[in-house]
């Protein structure tokens, strides 16, 4: 049971006087300034980011690796970017180390109602104003517009970046580079090593993951710095970025306290080639605004899918019972105005759903994948009277 802007070269106009009878200097034209390498050293990482964006399009692949004694748990994000159009198409996928504590798995994958965690893979298509997400093996895209449903919050917003349409990559934090050092690289490129403050670095992560890393970050404090390495090609475009985030770990009360290392590696290639291939608008798409809601707002007898991409436990997708679905709600049980305490609230929810199960329509409850198995939720004290009357929601998992 659930209990828990682009770069441009400046044109300089030179006026010549009609009285001029001689000129000085050689006959060769002076080479134009390099848009990245002729900038001040401290500005070159930022200029490299602008040169990357000026390419118009690029492919990317990033791994975010959480290391523990149980092995590496890795999130892989990859796809194609259109900087001009603020579009991206790609995916995120997790590979979790065997033996990683359950609370760490929940923090990385996110929990969902029913038995199990959020899917390890999601496909993403990001346009200006719209994020489409397909979780796991879902048969449809879930479309989040700018007016996202209540509760979907930061976890959906974090999927969109500010420096590239696809969020959560190292491109988001390059502009914060400090204490920059450089060296020459083969092919006319450069490599850089820089530092980042923890405050700037945390922008890469969604709120729920930030909450598991160090807290109370003061923008003026420079302790716990992160190392950033950049490789830049002869045109000044970023081809590789690597950052060691291990300094962000160490909270004793964190679900990630067993994680001892955190590292990101980003590669960028395919500059100026084809734009991302977006899923066709004719494909099956469901509006999150119309369908994503707290389970407590779903009518008894109605059906839901449990994967919303929001990483908010009680949010579900309302779907037709005529199509495959994850669960069916069979009852809601109201609580009183005052919170009775965590233990009592759980016990009351369990008893109310037990009684409701006995009297519920058999056509609803027989969908359960396990005989006589039902699930229930209840609000926490913090959410007791937030968004309406506090209720326990009772449901069976149907697949």
UniProtKB/TrEMBL annotation:
It comes from Streptomyces pristinaespiralis (strain ATCC 25486 / DSM 40338 / CBS 914.69 / JCM 4507 / KCC S-0507 / NBRC 13074 / NRRL 2958 / 5647). The keyword Signal applies. PROSITE patterns: PROKAR_LIPOPROTEIN. Residues 1-22 form the signal peptide. This is Septum formation-related domain-containing protein. Pfam families: Septum_form. It comes from the Bacteria. Residues 298-391 form the Septum formation-related domain. Transmembrane segments: none annotated. InterPro entries: Septum_form. Keywords: Signal. The keyword Signal applies.
């Amino acid at each position: 049971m659930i209990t828990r802007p682009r770069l441009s070269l400046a044109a300089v106009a030179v006026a010549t006087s009609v009285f001029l009878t001689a000129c000085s200097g050689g006959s060769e034209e002076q080479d134009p300034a390099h848009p990245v390498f002729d900038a001040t050293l401290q500005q070159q990482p930022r200029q490299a980011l602008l040169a990357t964006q000026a390419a118009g399009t690029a492919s990317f692949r990033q791994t975010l690796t959480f290391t523990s004694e149980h092995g590496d748990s890795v999130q892989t994000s990859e796809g194609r970017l259109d900087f001009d159009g603020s579009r991206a198409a790609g995916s995120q996928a997790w590979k979790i180390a065997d033996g990683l504590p359950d609370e760490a798995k929940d923090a990385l994958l996110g929990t969902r109602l029913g038995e199990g965690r959020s899917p390890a893979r999601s496909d993403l298509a990001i346009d200006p104003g719209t994020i489409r997400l397909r979780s796991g093996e879902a048969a449809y895209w879930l479309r989040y517009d700018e007016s996202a449903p209540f509760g979907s919050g930061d976890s959906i917003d974090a999927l969109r970046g500010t420096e590239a349409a696809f969020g959560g990559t190292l491109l988001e934090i390059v502009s914060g580079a400090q204490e920059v050092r450089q060296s020459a690289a083969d092919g006319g490129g450069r490599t850089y090593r820089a530092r980042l403050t923890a405050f700037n670095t945390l922008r890469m992560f969604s709120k729920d993951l930030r909450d598991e890393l160090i807290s109370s970050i003061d923008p003026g404090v420079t302790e716990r710095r992160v190392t950033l390495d950049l490789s830049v090609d002869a045109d000044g475009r970023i081809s590789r970025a690597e950052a060691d985030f291990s300094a962000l770990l160490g909270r004793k009360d964190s679900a990630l306290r067993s994680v001892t290392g955190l590292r990101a590696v980003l590669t960028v290639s395919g500059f100026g080639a084809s734009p991302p291939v977006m899923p066709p608008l004719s494909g099956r798409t469901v509006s999150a605004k119309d369908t994503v809601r707290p389970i407590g707002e779903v009518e008894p007898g109605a059906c839901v899918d449990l994967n919303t991409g929001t990483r908010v436990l009680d949010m579900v997708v309302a779907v037709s019972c005529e199509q495959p679905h994850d669960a069916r709600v069979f009852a809601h049980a109201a609580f009183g105005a005052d919170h009775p305490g965590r233990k009592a609230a759980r016990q009351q929810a369990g008893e109310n759903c037990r009684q409701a199960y006995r009297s519920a329509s058999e056509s609803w409850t027989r969908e359960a994948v396990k005989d006589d198995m039902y699930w229930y939720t209840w609000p926490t004290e913090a959410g007791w009277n937030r968004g309406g009357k506090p209720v326990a929601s009772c449901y069976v998992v149907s697949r």
